[in-house]
Amino acid sequence: MVDRVRARDLEFLTAETAETPLHNATIEIFDPGDSGFDYTRLVDLIRDRIAFVPRYRQRVQAVPGHLAAPLWVDDEKFDLGFHVRRSALPRPGTSGQLLELASRIVSRPLDRTRPLWEVYFVEGLEDGRVAVLSKTHQALVDGVHTVDLGQLLLDTQPTPREFEPDDWEPRRAPAPGALVAGAVKDAVTDGQTVVNTVLGTSRAVLRTADERTRGVRSVLGAVTGRRPKSRGVIGGELSQQRRVVTVETCLGDYRKVRKVHGGTVNDVILATVTGGIRSWLMTRAESMGGIRQVRALVPVSVIDEELEATSLGSQIAAHFVDLPVGEASPVVRLHQVSYSFQAHKETGRSVAANRLAGVAGFAPTTFHAIGSRVAANELRRGYQLSVTNVPGPQAPLYAAGAEMLASYPVAPLLPGHPLVISVTSYNGGVFYGITADRDLVPDADLLGICLREALDELLEVSSAGRQRAPRGRRTGSTRSSARSSARSAAAKPRGKGTSG
Predict the structure, then answer these.
(1) Do 151 and 366 touch, CB atoms closer than 8 A?
(2) 119, 163, 132: which is closest to 37 by C-alpha?
(3) pLDDT tens-digit profile of 450-496?
(4) Buried b vs exposed e over 211-244: b needs ≥16 C-beta within 10 Å?
(5) Going by DSSP bridges, is the β-strand pair 294-302/71-74 parallel, antiparallel, or unpaired?
(6) I want to staple 426 with a disulfide (CB 3.0 to 4.6 A). Which of 14, 163, 247, 392 is the partner?
(7) What global pTM score does this model have?
């Protein structure tokens, strides 16, 4: 049976460039304890579970002449050791060193000639911890046919579940002649094949033309001395390098704010993001008089018969929120964000957070991947920032007996969007993953500190006797001191996870 790449997945393959590698990543921190969790155990664990996601042993096979959409075919030379890699930090590895390694790994596109995923086992972290960094292409995980591999590797008990041995043997890839014959047959019997082919080819041609004209514009700009107009602080032309920043906070703090001011934990998280971006812009000496709102896309889980349900039993839709970054009061910011989501709740389409958290396995990795797909599909809507928040289980999970301490989502950047924020709650913690363009957002670590300050500000107005954090525009010397503190904080571990 021919398994062609679907139109939606083909768009992600054709839209990818060196400046916009379209893969989702996750950084997970583990405490091996006495489990013996090491690289070999991780390879064995993946070998044991990979049968549940057949797509992870398939590669993309193009059709000669691009007569039809490419196919998913078994990788006859599938090498698990190529996809599961071993790395290490100089002991004792700091959080900053881990994030620098992660930044370099997520900057590199995946090899198109092999299955589109990689996993890195990182040793040498301080306190005997290890990290597992995974990245998977957007075309691979759609939540319908394939979930993220990370969802299948974790168990609720230290003793791993046992499965029947996997006797997988790759099917031989079709010969070029068979590919052409199949393309002609599908074109005759299935009109959608022609539509998908035209769509993929046209996008590739337009992308190539845009890259060429971009080069011409750069030369003309250098000759005339003109610079392209700025697209604002959360917009611009991306480089090929990324910076990853992580922040760990306590779920109990968000529940405390919710209890005092109402709303949901999601509202408090969005208000924290709003306050964090406001403070970050002020440290950059941005004029808040001209920036009142930041248009954010927040993928939400809904009940909708018109949308395709994921294999997790939910549909994911785009919800747009104007984050009131120009508002000085943290309480007013929270109420404005809550009001935006209240209208969504009253439609009766929203799905409760505890339902998502109760999905089997560690579903946040899959939901973040779907959220990134939604963000890519809605680029034409002109939003400035994507924020994906996924609730996870509030009990410890284990990989081959090692307890997972933290899980940080790392979403891909889209054209013109040098910043994206993803959030996962797990076992009493709320973990932020910030992905930023290394050139356009060199102070991404400072944004991480501002997120902490924003949460502290909300906690302050939720309890008496809490000392107020200094707010307002920083002077040049204060701003320099803040950047220095950010660099120092990025190199120090916080709590039981990684932060930057």
Answers:
(1) yes
(2) 132
(3) 999 999 999 999 985 444 444 343 444 444 444 444 444 444 444 44
(4) eeeeeeeeeeeeeeeeeeeeeebbebebeeebbb
(5) unpaired
(6) 392
(7) 0.84
- CB count in 10 Å sphere of residue 382: 10
Phi-psi region of 186 (alpha: psi -120 to 50; beta: other; left: phi over 0): alpha
The answer to whether 390 touches 356, Cβ cutoff 8 Å, is yes
> What whole-number distance in Å separates Cα of residue 230 and Cα of residue 221?
14
Beta strand 429-437 with 385-391 is unpaired
Q: DSSP string spanning 165-208? A: PP---PPPPPPHHHHHHHHHHHHHH-HHHHHHHHHHHHHHHHHH
CA atoms within 13 A on the CB side of 336: 21
Position 86 pLDDT exceeds 90: yes
Beta partners for residue 249, in sequence order: 430
CB atoms within 10 A of CB 1: 2
Structure tokens at 261: 């001011």
Pairing outcome for strands 84-93 and 117-125: parallel
How far apart CA 281 and CA 339 sit, in angstroms, is: 24
Report CA-CA distances (Å) from 90 to 40, 87, 122, 125, 133.
20, 10, 11, 8, 17
Contacts 24+ apart (CB under 8 A), 210-218: 211/17
Condensed to tens digits (0 to 9), the pLDDT of residues 316-356 reads 888 999 999 999 999 999 999 999 888 656 554 555 555 55
- The upper half-sphere exposure of residue 113, i.e. CA atoms within 13 Å in the direction of its Cβ, equals 3
